[in-house]
Design brief:
- The chain is 33% helix and 20% strand.
- It has 9 helices and 11 strands.
- It has helices at 48-54, 81-95, 107-118, 143-158, 168-178, 184-193, 221-228, 272-275, 277-288; strands spanning 10-16, 19-27, 33-37, 59-63, 100-105, 123-129, 164-165, 195-197, 203-205, 235-240, 260-265.
- The longest helix has 16 residues, at 143-158.
């Protein structure tokens, strides 16, 4: 891949199971590869502040998951963990340079952890921001009911109109409502890169509404534990103390990762790489470099 001057990342596309997916290349050539994987209903440019800080030491790539950012929406209504792992594996093969380092957030962290368990020889180090328990499913519903509930949610999504916003300020306000820790600057940046314009000038989020619905199978607790046991690389697990996510020390899946360390961050919610960027970068650089 060609070199380019510091500044804005370069947009590239690749194909995975017939879908055209985007990734952003932050440079720099001849440095070890680092892949960034965003969370659900998010987009790759949420990593800009992290990527620009780490590009001095890594060749940084940020993936738009299927149904998110500028990547294609999947046909049908199924966005499974297995498909996200498939897409990550395709990008990693294109980048090459194994073993790669990976940073994932939320759904992206689940995907990254599963990838590291399926391809343990291909991952050198892994940073997971709140990637345990989301969206791994406990067996609280028997199979038939689980399938029925999924069908009902998909049918509801078919009739749901995506919410639009009259202007950027209104969309930014919604972004800050979802994460009150965000500064005005970060909230506007995330909104600018996470929206499209409708024909009437209103703004709409880029992600596919069907990506909201977790599939009814393929990510249960027992199977996830078996995959996590295969991870051989060191893992750094972040948790925001003000997050809705479970404390990883209370999650039985954490114990399945043989080589891990948990970092708990105060005054941080689920998006702690935004909420406490300096702490996140300090701990991550010390771990990766």
């Amino acid at each position: 891949m060609s070199t380019h001057p510091p500044g804005e990342p370069i947009s590239h596309f690749f194909y995975s199971s017939r879908l055209k997916l985007q990734f952003w290349d932050f440079g720099t050539e001849d440095k070890p590869p680092l892949i960034l994987v965003h969370g659900g209903l998010d987009h790759a440019r949420n990593w800009d502040f992290v990527a620009k800080a780490l590009r001095e030491d890594f060749h940084v790539y940020a993936l738009d998951l299927r149904g998110h950012g500028n990547s294609a929406w999947a046909p049908g209504a199924l966005y499974s963990i297995a498909e996200h792992v498939l897409d990550l594996s395709a990008l990693a093969d294109i980048i090459h340079g194994f073993p790669v380092s990976i940073i994932g957030h939320s759904l992206g962290a689940v995907t990254s952890l599963m990838y590291a368990g399926v391809f343990p020889e291909r991952v050198g180090k892994l940073v997971a921001i709140e990637g345990l328990g989301l969206p791994i499913q406990q067996k609280q519903y028997p199979p038939a009911e689980r399938m029925r509930r999924w069908i009902e949610k998909v049918r509801d999504a078919e009739t749901r109109n995506s919410h639009s916003y009259p202007n950027l300020a209104a969309a930014v306000a919604r972004m800050k409502e979802a994460n009150p820790f965000l500064s005005d600057e970060v909230a506007e940046h995330l909104t600018l890169h996470g929206t499209n314009w409708n024909s009437d000038g209103s703004m709409i989020w880029k992600f596919d509404n069907y990506a909201r619905v977790f599939p009814p199978y393929g990510a249960n607790l027992d199977e996830a534990a078996q995959v996590l046991r295969q991870i051989s690389c060191p893992c750094l697990l972040f948790w925001g103390r003000q997050s809705f996510a479970q404390d990883p020390d209370a999650d039985p899946l954490t114990r399945e990762i043989a080589n891990h360390r948990v970092v708990k961050v105060d005054q941080a919610g689920h998006w702690l790489h935004h909420d406490q960027l300096e702490i996140f970068l300090r701990e991550t650089k010390a771990f990766l470099i």
